[in-house]
Amino acid sequence: MKVVCVGGGPATLYFSILLKLQAPSHDITVLERNPAGSTYGWGVTYWPDMLERLRRHDPTSASAISDGSLRWRDGVAHVGERTTTHEGDEGFAIGRHKLLDILARRAESLGVGIEYGHEVPDRAQLPKADLVVAGDGANSTMRDRHADHFGTHTTLGRNPYLWLGTTKVFRSFTFAFVQTAHGWIWCYAYGYSGEHSTCVVECSKATWQGLELDRLPQPEALRRLEGIFASLLEGHSLIGRSGLGGPAPWQTFRTLTNRTWSHGNLVLLGDAAHTTHYSIGAGTTLAMQDAMVLASSLAGAKTIQPALSHYERTRKSELLSVQSAARHSAQWYENLPRYIQLPPAHMFALLGQRHSPLLPHIPPQLYYRIDRAADQLQSLRRLKQWLGPRLARTLQHRDSARG
């Protein structure tokens, strides 16, 4: 089978590795528009269960990814002058540049061809192939050429956010919430190497405008943010966009879905197919899981279409709970005033429960007490697990009817 992958991100590279491991005779080419060694972003996160899945699919690349990652084992939340710690929140982070390098080297060692600096403005300019994999991100040109067929739908979040790096190396997954004269602003920070951490800054639109972050040139905006988060950064600097040059842009998150994921021999992968809010730290993991399922669906397939249909059905089913969690996580931050005045331990507990469909509909302190009781009573925990999704669906249908 001849396969062309558009976009050289983690999903397409990992897919090419898995397909080559299945059948070395496959002719696979990855076309990446950017030069070799250039990328955007800082570190990406993943969790212990993902590492186990990577080991089952390809122990060689999994070992290299594990060796190149920084591990944390707890979470820390700073709310003004108050700090609380939650132990046992184990996770991993690796620099995006390092991850891509590991996957590209592994793919090339198996015979995958990677062509850098190869812009593909139109599907008609691709070489003939049995399968075309569109892994060219949320702004996929391959997908947008057939947007009506794919049924692409985008929902915009409310809060502006900015993806930054810093020279402060965080050994725990760290949240910091700071109250300003214009409202609360916060960041998520985690180390991914011995030299750098990712630092994602977020706030409401009113706070963003009040702090003049909507109009300050980036150097001045970074200095202002360094002042706001001075106690967290301890003299370290914030750094704008990594890799591709230009300032890091303020954005509002786009949750993207597609009605269908394939069109003839063209199939969507990763962010081209779906996006989930960054606050659950799952974007790269979900994209690589797409690659796992697509590769396994194609294994031994006599024709392409049934395999692509199986891939789409499987991944859409697996994504339902994750997309729900991401949606509720984003809404938790968009409604931060509801939780921020709670005692630190209570607030951090509800931060950890932000994926719950019940939480938006129960007074926070009552939810906290129920959650603590559920930890002690198995029957109450089962009731909470049963009631949550049903209440969420009922309220969603009610809100849709009102709209």
Written description of the protein model:
- Helix 13 runs antiparallel to helix 14 (378-402).
- The model is unreliable at 399-403 (pLDDT under 50).
- The longest helix is centred in the last third of the chain and has 31 residues, at 304-334.
- Strands 3, 4, 5, 8, 9, 10, 11, 12 and 13 form a 9-stranded mixed β-sheet that branches.
- The protein is built from 14 helices and 15 strands.
- The chain has 403 residues and is α/β, with parallel strands linked by helices.
- 42% of the residues lie in helices and 25% in strands.
Keywords:
alpha/beta, 6-stranded mixed β-sheet, 14 helices, disordered C terminus
Biggest beta sheet attributes: 9 strands, mixed
Shape: globular
Mean pLDDT: 91
Which structural category do the helix and sheet elements fall into? Answer: alpha/beta
Number of helices: 14
Number of strands: 15
Q: What is the alpha-carbon Rg in Å?
A: 22 Å
Strand content: 15-25%
Chain-wise SSE layout:
Elements: E1 2-6, H1 10-22, E2 27-32, E3 43-46, H2 48-57, H3 59-67, E4 70-79, E5 82-95, H4 96-109, E6 113-116, E7 131-134, H5 141-144, H6 147-150, E8 153-166, E9 173-180, E10 183-191, E11 197-203, H7 205-210, H8 218-228, H9 230-233, E12 238-239, E13 251-257, E14 262-263, E15 266-268, H10 283-298, H11 304-334, H12 344-352, H13 364-376, H14 378-402
Parallel strand pairs: 1-2, 1-7, 2-6, 4-9, 7-15
Antiparallel strand pairs: 3-5, 4-5, 8-11, 8-12, 8-13, 9-10, 10-11, 14-15
Helix pairs in contact: 1-4, 1-10, 2-3, 3-4, 10-11, 13-14
